Amino acid sequence: MNLEQLRGFVEVARWEHFTRASEHLHLAQPSLSRQISTLERELGAELFHRARGHIALTAAGETLLPRAQRMLAEAEAIRDEMGELAGLRRGRVRLGAPPTLCVSLVAEAISSFHGAHPAVDLHLTEGGSRLLVEQLAVGAVDIALITASDGLPPAGVSLTQTPLLAEELVVVSAATQPPLSANQHLDLEQLALLPLIGFDESYELRAITDAVFRAADLTPNLVLEGAEMESALRFVERGMGVAIVPAMVLLDRPTLRSIRLSHQTMRRTVSLAHRSDVTPAVAVAAMRKTILATAADVARRDPAITSLI
Length: 309
Prior knowledge:
Elements: H1 3-15, H2 18-25, H3 29-43, E1 48-51, E2 54-57, H4 59-86, E3 92-97, H5 99-102, H6 105-116, E4 121-126, H7 129-137, E5 143-148, E6 159-174, E7 185-186, H8 188-192, E8 195-199, H9 204-215, E9 221-227, H10 229-237, E10 243-246, E11 256-261, E12 267-275, H11 282-300, E13 305-307
Parallel strand pairs: 3-4, 3-5, 7-11, 8-9
Antiparallel strand pairs: 1-2, 5-12, 6-10, 6-11, 6-12, 6-13
């Protein structure tokens, strides 16, 4: 018994006529008749009452029909699903990333991926790296971009991590205002005198900057605390102060200018992570490939960003 025999049987039952069924199947009637006869021999039962001008199901045929329909439907579903996954015409990617990457690398990667695979469902979780590691551990996200600075590694979970970028933290100011310094770099003493927009304490970025100022025995001149990334950049654009941000944030933001810091520990590493014990699905693997390509492109556009790929 094979699928072609079952398909022929279902069509004959539907049309109650061998000629019409063969026309619908684009199959010669003798070939269809042989399929049905072979199926009946294999099952050891007649499936149709045959009379001139009329075909009707036997009791055996009535028993087989719903099962044959289910088998054909399941075979079609399997064929469609495998084809769709192979061609990424469906699927799901649950991506996690810190807010500082969502306004830069992630925005570009998701836009590129969606353009190539518009039918794949995309879910984005924004959060700090420690939260994203927890989300990976419990299977709430499939893949995540995580960041780590010197002395602040992500929490220990069995992860496969691919370092993507080494990124400096830079000071941004409004492009409409004079440059912060005539030099190419700004030192911490100069930075401590400037009005600073401070991020929310949940940001790893805030922890990095606070630790650097403490180590240098300096107190920053905070004019606003608790800002999220997008709102902080808006305040800077309006001339309220400066902000310390990852260099990548400045991509495609002509309203801001940046200056690099002389303090070499003001940097972070961006890695792509997934659970070591889980093989990424087809769509997730495609997203990973897109992120790798996007990261390499981003590194070519800014000297404060170094590719680690």
